[in-house]
Design brief:
Length: about 475
């Protein structure tokens, strides 16, 4: 089973760790390149400084070097090296080379004015870089004309000097390796911290959900004040709590309806069963009474039919609840209405729109809806009062309407409860013919065939409207 907590911790930890590792990698690469560039720049700067110490006049080339200011060129350990070639001959080299078995730097030809940096192993065995630079020695401005004259008189060109300057890169590499180690260590530490912080933050964020879960476990549908509080909750959970409260209210309403329906069913079944028991006891007590004996079968049959009617309607109501019905039948519903109202034609007034097309729907459902509405109007209207039955269309949709006077005054609450199973205006349930299932079946059938039904009350005139889709 998928865990939101584990997935959230894993995804956040991995994504944040990868981002940090990528940033560290970029910084490491940039830093390595920068250090290498700075080291090469320092080589060129030192080489330029050595080049500046070389001068030339008519007497020859002079190298004004002083180890007092550059002690790195005369040390035995951790030394730096330089060497100058005048043509193919070694002109000058650092004292630090004298301490090594290989006391000379390798010669590499370089064009005048060009610089070349190569990786090499220094005479002392360390890894390093050598920069080669070919140049002509500088001539003092005051002696420039005399030196040019000297060159013309002797017919000799100013010689090209080659400088080789070498320095170790091991210290720099050690620093870079140490920085790499620090970056890797920092990455692991940050990954651990990210996992720890994310895990704790997720756990902290899930506390309201855990508390909500604990509160939901304590809920009982039978509680009077059944509602979850949305106080002290995060903003994201408020709609969730409101939805749960609406769901609880709906289930509470259904629970109350179910309790009432169970009580009503028990009452409706208990009454005829009690009648059967009383009637049987009387017959048993007076076996010689011919009147009781003669009426007994007929009365038992009537009570049995009433029981059958209640049970059949309950089964039909249960079957229709939440289920749709196919609408594959094509029929003339005007003919159905004529057949249904025929027994009551002395009371029903028809108002039909002409040229209504056939209806494609569920024949059983439409017939049952119309029959129950007509029977309801006959049953609950004053005797011999007129009942208006209208059949027309709203747009292209067939519309059925039936209106009648009410025998008893009805309230808005009565209209709201009218389609509830087993509901009766007569609280004492003194009627032996009706059990309050007819309109509930009508509502369920309308829902099953996607028909709209509504009831309105104008003074003492009640109207049921059904719009078939």
């Amino acid at each position: 089973m998928m865990s939101i907590r584990n997935n959230l911790v894993k995804s956040l930890s991995i994504s944040l760790s990868l981002v940090f590792a990528l940033v560290m990698l970029i910084i490491d690469v940039v830093l390595d390149n920068w250090v290498d560039k700075e080291f090469e720049q320092s080589l060129m700067s030192k080489a330029s400084l050595l080049v500046a110490l070389v001068s030339e006049d008519e007497r020859g080339v002079d190298f004004e070097f002083s180890s007092e200011f550059m002690p790195e060129f005369e040390k035995k350990d951790n030394a730096e090296y330089f060497q100058l070639w005048l043509g193919d001959e070694i002109f000058e080299k650092s004292d630090s080379l004298d301490f090594q078995l290989n006391n000379s730097l390798p010669f590499i030809a370089v064009s005048e004015g060009q610089k070349k940096i190569i990786e090499t192993r220094l005479p002392d065995g360390r890894d390093g870089l050598i920069i080669y630079y070919a140049f002509k020695a500088q001539v003092d401005t005051a002696k420039k004309s005399r030196f040019d004259t000297h060159l013309k008189e002797t017919g000799v060109a100013q010689p090209t000097i080659l400088l080789a300057y070498a320095a170790s890169t091991e210290d720099t590499e050690d620093i870079l390796i140490f920085l790499d180690f620090l970056f890797i260590l920092a990455t692991f530490i940050v990954v651990f911290l990210v996992v720890y912080v994310v895990k704790n933050k997720v756990d902290l964020g899930l506390i309201p959900l855990n508390e909500l879960n604990s509160e939901l476990k304590k809920i009982k549908i039978s509680d009077e004040n059944l509602k979850l509080s949305n106080k002290n909750l995060s903003l994201e959970l408020v709609p969730f709590i409101d939805s749960i409260n609406r769901f609880i209210d709906q289930n509470k309403t259904l629970y109350e309806k179910e309790k009432r329906l169970t009580s009503d069913i028990a009452h409706e079944l208990k009454t005829p069963i009690t009648e059967l028991m009383n009637l049987t006891e009387v017959v048993i007590k007076f076996p010689q009474d011919k009147i009781y004996q003669a009426d007994y079968p007929q009365q038992v049959l009537g009570i049995s039919w009433r029981l059958k009617n209640v049970i059949s309607n309950l089964l039909l109501l249960n079957k229709l609840s939440g289920n749709g019905l196919p609408k594959n039948d094509i029929f003339d519903y005007q003919q159905i209405i004529h057949s249904l109202y025929a027994p009551y034609e002395h009371r029903i007034r028809l108002k039909f729109q002409t040229e209504l097309p056939p209806l494609q729907n569920n024949l059983f459902a439409v017939e049952t809806v119309l029959k129950n509405l007509i029977n309801n109007a006959i049953q609950y209207s004053p005797k011999d009062s007129a009942i208006l039955l209208t059949l027309d269309s709203v747009g292209e949709l067939p519309h059925f309407s039936i209106s009648n006077e009410v025998s008893e005054a009805l309230s808005v609450e009565d209209l709201e409860n009218m389609f509830e199973p087993m509901w009766q205006k007569d609280i004492s349930r003194s009627s032996s013919e009706n059990v309050g299932l007819g309109l509930a079946i009508v509502a369920s059938l309308c829902d099953a065939i996607d028909a709209d039904i509504k009831v309105t009350l104008t003074q003492k005139l009640i109207t049921f409207d059904v719009l078939f889709h």
